[in-house]
Amino acid sequence: MTAHWTAAVLAIFVWWFATGAIMLAVRWADRAGGGAHGMVVFAGVPLLSLGVAAVVLSLSSVTVWGVYAGFLGALAIWGWIEMAFLAGIIAGPERRECPPGLAGWARFGRAWGTVAHHELALALGLMVLVMVTSGAVNQIALWSYLILFVARILAKLNLFFGVPRINLEFVPVQLTHIKSYFRRGPITVMFPVAITVLSFVVAGLAHRLVTADTDMQAAGFTLLSALAALALLEHWLMVVPLPDAKLWRWMLPAPKTRPDDKGRTHGL
User: Fold this and answer.
1) Residue 74 · residue 129 · CB < 8 Å
2) In this structure, is residue 133 part of a structural domain?
3) Is 118 contained in some domain?
């Protein structure tokens, strides 16, 4: 039971700390200007390399430490891609705001253009993990990345179609135009779809955790259950009026120009 709590606390801490660290680095680049955004992404390459190394080393490991290595390695890879996106280096070819009154497929097409390169980078990362983990005894890295991938797609679709609460406070300068593609309003059918999918994932992983036969399985399914539960929580925070932004605001310097929008943001 202690091992379960350790794994759960680790997952929550990494989610919180990594999110704050990425936002801190990007906000510094926003304030510094010039080539600071590219510098931040380049400075994160060693972290990406360590993540790749951790994933590779974890593939043949049947130990609890191998599970932790695969989990942290996958999050390091994901985190670097997210930092490149928030820094505006890997985003999309569309850098203009959404024209007033644009709707339907035209709006969707332009919204896709704002994040196309980012989505392709995430999909490429997933495909590489599928290939390198094929047949491996330890696939925690693949499943960790896959949970983040599915949750991020569902979150972006909900932000596009509409949710009551959207936090634009932490949107970096390089992505200011993306705010115009979000829609604040009543929930659509996409919200219950996302909640249902993530709830099934959490329930399935929790069941595997309860029935785990080894310490390795227990640690792995605890980490995955916690990660999926955090993704589910983030979706509920699009509806429930809680001051979740305070989780990171205290650790960040004031932005160069603070936007007027209020709401919530997402983790890794």
Assistant:
1) yes
2) yes
3) yes
* Per-residue pLDDT tens over the stretch 9-48: 888 888 888 888 888 899 889 888 888 999 999 999 999 9
Which residues lie across from 184 on neighbouring strands? 163
The predicted model scores a pTM of 0.90
Taking alpha carbons only, the member of 77, 24, 16 closest to residue 266 is 16
Q: Looking up tokens 């390459």, which residue turns up?
A: 45
Contact criterion met (CB below 8 Å) for 97 and 114? no
Q: Which residue in this structure is represented by tokens 């919204």?
A: 111
- For residue 191, the SS3 value is helix
Q: Which residues pair with 163 in a beta bridge?
A: 184
The residue that leads in pLDDT, 241 or 41, is 41
- 135-148 b/e (C-beta count within 10 Å ≥ 16 → b): ebebbbbbbbbbbb
108 burial level (CB within 10 Å; 0-12, 13-18, 19+): middle
Whether residue 51 lies inside any domain: the answer is yes
Task: Classify residue 168 by its DSSP letter.
Answer: -
| Three-class DSSP category at 34 | coil
Tokens of residue 237, six digits = 């925070």
Domain of 185 in residue numbering reads as: 2-161+169-249
Degrees (nearest 5) of the Cα angle 180, 182, 30? 60
pLDDT in tens, 77-132: 999 999 999 999 999 999 999 998 899 999 999 999 999 999 999 999 999 999 99
- Tallying the residues shown for the chain, one arrives at 268
The interaxial angle of helices 215-236 and 140-161, nearest 10 deg, is 10
Distance of CA 228 to the CA centre of its chain: 11
Residue 74 inside a domain? The answer is yes
- In 3D, which of 86, 95, 25, 78 has the Cα closest to residue 252? 25
